[in-house]
Write a structure and sequence with these properties.
101 residues; three-stranded parallel sheet; 4 helices; globular
Length: 101
């Protein structure tokens, strides 16, 4: 099941976001998450994504997280422990340096 997020994914929408993720989890299928439309996020959203991954693993389901988070949110994703959401630029891959944004 594919789940796409748009707009602000913050504590104000945590209950709604949680319900969407639970619906995907309870479908009993692999879950693919798309972050391209996210304009803002906070730690609560990162926690929901982490909980989804743990729950999928516990049920033997795959959980694919697209590395398509908008660049302005990259630092927060890394700080929250979700570096796989950040698509490295070609320059970073070559130099091995972190983005200073």
């Amino acid at each position: 099941m594919r789940v796409s997020f748009e707009g602000k994914c913050t504590i104000e929408r945590a209950a709604e976001l949680r319900e969407r993720l639970l619906k995907a989890l309870n479908a009993g299928e692999s879950v693919d998450i798309d972050f391209q439309g996210v304009s803002d996020m906070d730690l609560s959203f990162c926690q929901l994504i982490h909980a989804l991954r743990v729950s999928c693993e516990g049920r033997g389901l795959s959980c694919a997280l697209a590395a398509d988070l908008p660049p302005q949110l990259a630092a927060l994703a890394v700080k929250c422990g979700l570096p796989e959401l950040v698509r490295p630029s070609a320059g970073d891959a070559v130099t091995g340096k972190e983005d200073a944004r």
